[in-house]
Fold these 3 entries.
Entry 1:
Amino acid sequence: MYAFNYQRPSSLQEASTLIHSGGQALAGGQTLLASMKLRLSSPESLVDLSQIAELQEIKLDGQHVVIGAMVKHAQVASNATVRQHLPALADLAAHIGDKQVRAMGTLGGSVANNDPSACYPSAVLALGANIHTTERVIAAHDFFLGMFSTALEAGELITAISFPIPKKAVYLKFKQQASRFALVGIFMAQMPDGVRVAITGASQQGVFRHAGLEAALNHSFTVQSAAAVTIEETDLNHDIHASAAYRAHMISVQAQRAVKHLLG
């Protein structure tokens, strides 16, 4: 590590002022602190968001579950409102990393970082969530721009994410054993306007919706329909953990399992 200024604002307005003055936002620190230790990141000032109460609320707003940016994974997993109205999201959160990661990592930090193998982006995209920031509201389909890239502007902070409540939903993850990130993760949601399928961990560009699976399942929601969809290897990741062909196969397998789960 190296010397840096540490600031702990108690209000969102104070935090925004500090960040616009050049401070680096610190949420759960699961990525940032590791990057600093490796000297891959060297902010001169850290702005710790952990004491801002308005970023830590979970509430039901009509047909949406609204979760503050600083709510930790463990809290998403255990919260009664989330478990009742969005059990798939609670289950997703319960299987992120290990207990230490779930105790410190935050929803907003994960979504803002947009790691291509992170779990939350698949839920945000599949459910058509809205990302609320200090400046505006961003629809999920406009937010994720590619690997570690989002629509957030300099100094803009996520304050909350509003998740529409689906008819049914499920998240299935085939994980890399050491990191517990997704080699292939699928969030499948039956929404009022149809089936939506978002995939994480598989693409070089990060999270994406699979148009072929969505079209097939909206025509006929069966395991056979999912199995009949050809999963192209183009643009899928190929690394020491799995080939593009293996990931393509796992997308098909997980999609079939997700349909079977939602059919009960």
Entry 2:
Amino acid sequence: MNFAEKAVIMDADEMTRAIKRMAHEVLEANKGVENLVLLGIQRRGVSLARMLGEAIKQIEGHEVPQGALDITFYRDDLSTLGPAPQVSSTEMPFDVTDKIIILVDDVLYTGRTVRAALDVIMDWGRPAAIRLAVLVDRGHRELPVRPDFVGKNVPTSQREIIKVKVKEFDDEEEVIVGEVMDA
């Protein structure tokens, strides 16, 4: 798939401000950090969960337990990913039962990734609540999924793509919008 970049819609500073605002919103909604855990969806959701966790620690002075979810085998389009889909690890160094989980992802689009993540979580236990935090909500939902915490709402067309870049994978932090180009 060819991708033509159209614009940077968030630079590193804007990403940091959005994550700090989301941290405040999470703490306000939860009335602190008690019983709170962060679960990032592999790959960039994990990086964003770390950033969110650091922002929460700066505000509250307490670390929030963090984990990572790999949803690969829970996807409803697994058969279309080819013979060797990229598999990451699921790391949950805590019991999810009765926890308030903040599920973190980079971009919310159709809602199918979130549905798969919910299935993974429920296989690990029964949390008290699951809240969704996304850096970018681009619309075009196919499932009844709504984020609780959003860094930025970006209306897009179906041909557009949102790419979130994080230092861990991309050596820079920014969010860009581009368009799929015909091959």
Entry 3:
Amino acid sequence: MKEPVLILSDLHLGHKASIIDDVSVLEPLIRGAGTLLLNGDTWQELAREFQEAGKLLLEQLQQLCARLGVDMLMLPGNHDPGSGSQGYALLAEGKIVVTHGDCVFRDGAPWSRMAMKKQSEVAQLWSQHAASHIDDRLQLGREIARLLIPPHYPHSRKIWMRAWDAVMPPGRGLRMLIAWMTMVKQTRIFARRYFPDCEIILCGHFHRCGIWDDDELLVINSGSFMPPGGAYWCEWNKRLFTVGQVKKSTTQMERGEILGVWLL
């Protein structure tokens, strides 16, 4: 990949709750990158009600990158499992792993309504896969994503509507809280099983940005471009891995405060 490599996740292009209505707001953030690596859930491939808008915005993002001379590479997520043929990217000779994160948990998004309803179908898919190799595990994740397509999606950006959607039906909010509380531990288990030599694993998916370090493995979640959470930008360039906040306004998004720099 051409450096600098800029990594963003969970743009959710086309979703009514995404803060990106016009991809031109991303230009200040993308300008200067050699490669834009999109770590899953870039657009709403599976949501029929958002597909048309998402596809249009995705095409506009591709045009923007072409105009800026930036290579664009997409990794699949649970909302766009058809994006890209490989479910992860390796940087720094494999010391950095970039993957969406939906395969961290057995059922992808355990807080989703469909995961709550289709536990037996998820178990059946698991019985058909050994999942001992990363490629098979990621293929299983794509099949689970397609199984768990909800009949409709929330349309509001209002915080109280997003909060109501998060806790209904009863039990969903608890599942979400448990996932947030255990996501770092489960991400480390996933990384140690499938990428034992990595030193940094970067995910999105959980819409909870953060940096969690220990002596063995650094876990970074880059958040999302949907409220109420924030988003991080990450960059790999000249042996340095940098993470910072995305500074948002109504007219543009740009690189904000740097939160950490690691030399590999």
